[in-house]
């Protein structure tokens, strides 16, 4: 099955790996520079709290890409299975991906919280719209 919405799904997965690489590209040099060693007997937060904020931001964003986007994946794949992964739904999916990338870039570079929140809210509304489109098909379709 090939449907345009799956391109957006894979794009967001690939972006998650970009953030994963960025996380380690900043964390490992910081560990070396600060001479940090992880002690498994201590709370992990004590280790992470020793990193400069601009290093932690990448890890925070990587974690965020495993939260709300999981709903996006479920909805987008549902729409693909339903044969509704083109047109407006594909456009909304790409808008969501673009907003999540923008959110990542803001959080990982300047971490301007209000700007990040605004992007997150718009992305959430796009995801809600996509979810409503899926719900309308699932709950009002021929087999409902």
From TrEMBL:
Pfam families: MAPEG
Family matches, as SUPFAM superfamilies: MAPEG domain-like (SSF161084)
UniProt keyword Nucleotide-binding present: no
Transmembrane segments: 6-25, 71-97, 117-139
Major localisation: membrane
This protein's UniProt keywords: Membrane, Transmembrane, Transmembrane helix
Compartment(s) where it occurs, according to its Swiss-Prot or TrEMBL record: Membrane
A GO CC term assigned to this protein in UniProt: membrane
Lineage top rank: taxon: Bacteria
Annotated protein name in UniProt: MAPEG family protein
Source species: Sphingomonas montanisoli
């Amino acid at each position: 099955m090939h449907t345009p919405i799956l391109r957006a799904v894979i794009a967001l997965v690939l972006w998650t790996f970009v953030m994963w690489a960025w996380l380690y590209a900043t964390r490992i040099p910081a560990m070396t520079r600060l001479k940090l060693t992880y002690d498994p007997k201590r709370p992990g937060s004590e280790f992470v709290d020793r990193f400069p904020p601009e290093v932690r931001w990448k890890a925070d964003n990587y974690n965020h890409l495993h939260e709300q986007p999981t709903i996006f994946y479920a909805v987008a794949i549902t729409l693909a299975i339903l044969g509704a992964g083109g047109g407006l739904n594909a456009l909304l999916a790409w808008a969501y991906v673009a907003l999540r990338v923008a959110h990542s870039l803001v959080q990982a570079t300047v971490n301007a919280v209000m700007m990040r929140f605004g992007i997150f809210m718009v992305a959430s509304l796009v995801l809600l719209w996509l979810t409503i489109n899926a719900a309308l098909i699932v709950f009002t379709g021929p087999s409902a």
